[in-house]
Amino acid sequence: MKAAFFALALSIFLNLSTYGGQVWPIGSVAAIVIMGVWIKFSMDRRFEELENRIKNQGVSRNAEKEEQ
User: Fold this and answer.
1) Using CA atoms, how far apart are residues 24 and 51, in angstroms rounded to an integer?
2) Is the pTM of this model over 0.90?
């Protein structure tokens, strides 16, 4: 959530800049990059947690089979 607010604030601030009388959407590009990186790291973390859960379930199932 912090990343979204940071990206929004940065995009507002950077979109106010002009060069040679023309507005350049640098802030929008920066916001898109920040949100993309945040989404990637968030999804990677969730997939790692899911992978660990699947591995733990596989280990517990193998242990149950060995006990029987």
Assistant:
1) 43
2) no
State pLDDT tens for residues 38-57: 899 999 999 999 998 888 88
Give the distance, in angstroms, between the CA of residue 2 and the centroid of all CA atoms in the same chain: 11
Joined together, the tokens standing for residue 67 give: 């006990």
Q: How far is CA 24 from CA 9, 14, 15, 19, 67, in A?
A: 16, 9, 7, 7, 67
pLDDT of residue 46: 92
User: What does DSSP assign to residue 25?
Assistant: -
**DSSP secondary structure string for all residues of 34-60:** HHHHHHHHHHHHHHHHHHHHHHHHHHH
